[in-house]
């Protein structure tokens, strides 16, 4: 049995009652037909409520054998074509996506008691998109993209700092271009699920899915 002091207890009736009051004025989500418009609304609310990184999202990938992996990344763009993030292509996730170009996302906004899950195929962003986003990053972040051999063994923190200093000296005051091993991916969803907390675990779940990217969305409500 887990330690009661470590794992929070299940909510009691009083706690659920407070949750009901907090969510009483939430906008009804089940009259929507466009999942991207609904996601934009929820992300806009999250940016106002979350203490930091409202665009943080858990990214799940799998290697060629099907073994899953998950980590947090930052969403950098979203539109009707999909959800975009950037990374070192030689990182763990970069290698897994090269082997198995499918992924899932999970946004969890604790302040709103909401969650969005996304599943779909993955494709690279264009070089122009990657160049434009890379140019918008802070200069030190751009240098860091050259200095870090992401996901590979690092003998010491000093070795990383030495690599950063070497790359900073190499570029001097000049422009820092995008490394060839650094770019972005777009997850093109085949399904999205919008989840909203409700008292007594009787949550709201709205599910959008389509058989392929050219099809229209089917919308359904799911049991909690």
From TrEMBL:
<feature type="binding site">
    <location>
        <position position="76"/>
    </location>
    <ligand>
        <name>substrate</name>
    </ligand>
</feature>
<feature type="binding site">
    <location>
        <position position="137"/>
    </location>
    <ligand>
        <name>substrate</name>
    </ligand>
</feature>
<dbReference type="InterPro" id="IPR019740">
    <property type="entry name" value="Pyridox_Oxase_CS"/>
</dbReference>
<feature type="binding site">
    <location>
        <begin position="71"/>
        <end position="76"/>
    </location>
    <ligand>
        <name>FMN</name>
    </ligand>
</feature>
<keyword id="KW-0285">Flavoprotein</keyword>
<dbReference type="InterPro" id="IPR012349">
    <property type="entry name" value="Split_barrel_FMN-bd"/>
</dbReference>
<dbReference type="InterPro" id="IPR011576">
    <property type="entry name" value="Pyridox_Oxase_N"/>
</dbReference>
<feature type="binding site">
    <location>
        <begin position="201"/>
        <end position="203"/>
    </location>
    <ligand>
        <name>substrate</name>
    </ligand>
</feature>
<keyword id="KW-0560">Oxidoreductase</keyword>
<keyword id="KW-0664">Pyridoxine biosynthesis</keyword>
<comment type="subunit">
    <text>Homodimer.</text>
</comment>
<feature type="domain" description="Pyridoxine 5'-phosphate oxidase dimerisation C-terminal">
    <location>
        <begin position="182"/>
        <end position="224"/>
    </location>
</feature>
<dbReference type="InterPro" id="IPR019576">
    <property type="entry name" value="Pyridoxamine_oxidase_dimer_C"/>
</dbReference>
<comment type="similarity">
    <text>Belongs to the pyridoxamine 5'-phosphate oxidase family.</text>
</comment>
<feature type="binding site">
    <location>
        <position position="115"/>
    </location>
    <ligand>
        <name>FMN</name>
    </ligand>
</feature>
<feature type="binding site">
    <location>
        <position position="133"/>
    </location>
    <ligand>
        <name>substrate</name>
    </ligand>
</feature>
<comment type="function">
    <text>Catalyzes the oxidation of either pyridoxine 5'-phosphate (PNP) or pyridoxamine 5'-phosphate (PMP) into pyridoxal 5'-phosphate (PLP).</text>
</comment>
<comment type="pathway">
    <text>Cofactor metabolism; pyridoxal 5'-phosphate salvage; pyridoxal 5'-phosphate from pyridoxine 5'-phosphate: step 1/1.</text>
</comment>
<feature type="binding site">
    <location>
        <position position="205"/>
    </location>
    <ligand>
        <name>FMN</name>
    </ligand>
</feature>
<feature type="binding site">
    <location>
        <position position="195"/>
    </location>
    <ligand>
        <name>FMN</name>
    </ligand>
</feature>
<protein>
    <recommendedName>
        <fullName>Pyridoxine/pyridoxamine 5'-phosphate oxidase</fullName>
        <ecNumber>1.4.3.5</ecNumber>
    </recommendedName>
</protein>
<feature type="binding site">
    <location>
        <position position="141"/>
    </location>
    <ligand>
        <name>substrate</name>
    </ligand>
</feature>
<feature type="binding site">
    <location>
        <begin position="150"/>
        <end position="151"/>
    </location>
    <ligand>
        <name>FMN</name>
    </ligand>
</feature>
<dbReference type="GO" id="GO:0004733">
    <property type="term" value="F:pyridoxamine phosphate oxidase activity"/>
</dbReference>
<dbReference type="InterPro" id="IPR000659">
    <property type="entry name" value="Pyridox_Oxase"/>
</dbReference>
<feature type="domain" description="Pyridoxamine 5'-phosphate oxidase N-terminal">
    <location>
        <begin position="43"/>
        <end position="166"/>
    </location>
</feature>
<keyword id="KW-0288">FMN</keyword>
<dbReference type="GO" id="GO:0008615">
    <property type="term" value="P:pyridoxine biosynthetic process"/>
</dbReference>
<dbReference type="GO" id="GO:0010181">
    <property type="term" value="F:FMN binding"/>
</dbReference>
<feature type="binding site">
    <location>
        <position position="93"/>
    </location>
    <ligand>
        <name>FMN</name>
    </ligand>
</feature>
<feature type="binding site">
    <location>
        <begin position="86"/>
        <end position="87"/>
    </location>
    <ligand>
        <name>FMN</name>
    </ligand>
</feature>
<dbReference type="Pfam" id="PF01243">
    <property type="entry name" value="PNPOx_N"/>
</dbReference>
<dbReference type="Pfam" id="PF10590">
    <property type="entry name" value="PNP_phzG_C"/>
</dbReference>
<comment type="pathway">
    <text>Cofactor metabolism; pyridoxal 5'-phosphate salvage; pyridoxal 5'-phosphate from pyridoxamine 5'-phosphate: step 1/1.</text>
</comment>
């Amino acid at each position: 049995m887990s330690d009661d002091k470590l794992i929070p207890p299940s909510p009691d009736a009083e706690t659920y009652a407070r949750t009901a009051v907090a969510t009483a004025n939430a906008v009804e989500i089940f009259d929507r037909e466009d999942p991207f418009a609904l996601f934009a609304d929820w992300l806009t609310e999250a940016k106002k409520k979350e203490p930091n990184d409202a665009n943080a999202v858990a990214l799940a990938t799998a290697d060629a054998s099907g073994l899953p992996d998950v980590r947090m990344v930052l969403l950098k763009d979203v539109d009707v074509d999909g959800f975009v993030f950037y990374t070192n292509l030689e990182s763990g996730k970069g290698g897994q996506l090269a082997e198995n170009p499918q992924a899932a996302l999970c946004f969890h906004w604790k302040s709103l008691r909401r969650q969005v899950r996304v599943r779909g195929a993955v494709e690279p962003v264009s070089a122009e998109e990657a160049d434009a986003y890379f140019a918008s990053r802070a200069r030190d972040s751009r240098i860091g993209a050259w200095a870090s051999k992401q996901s590979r063994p690092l003998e010491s923190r000093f070795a990383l700092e030495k690599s950063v200093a070497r790359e900073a000296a190499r570029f001097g005051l000049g422009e820092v271009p995008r490394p060839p091993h650094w770019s972005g991916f777009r997850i093109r969803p085949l399904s999205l699920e919008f989840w909203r907390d409700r008292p007594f675990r009787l949550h709201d779940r709205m599910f959008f899915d389509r058989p392929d990217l050219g099809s229209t969305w089917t919308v359904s409500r799911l049991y909690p």
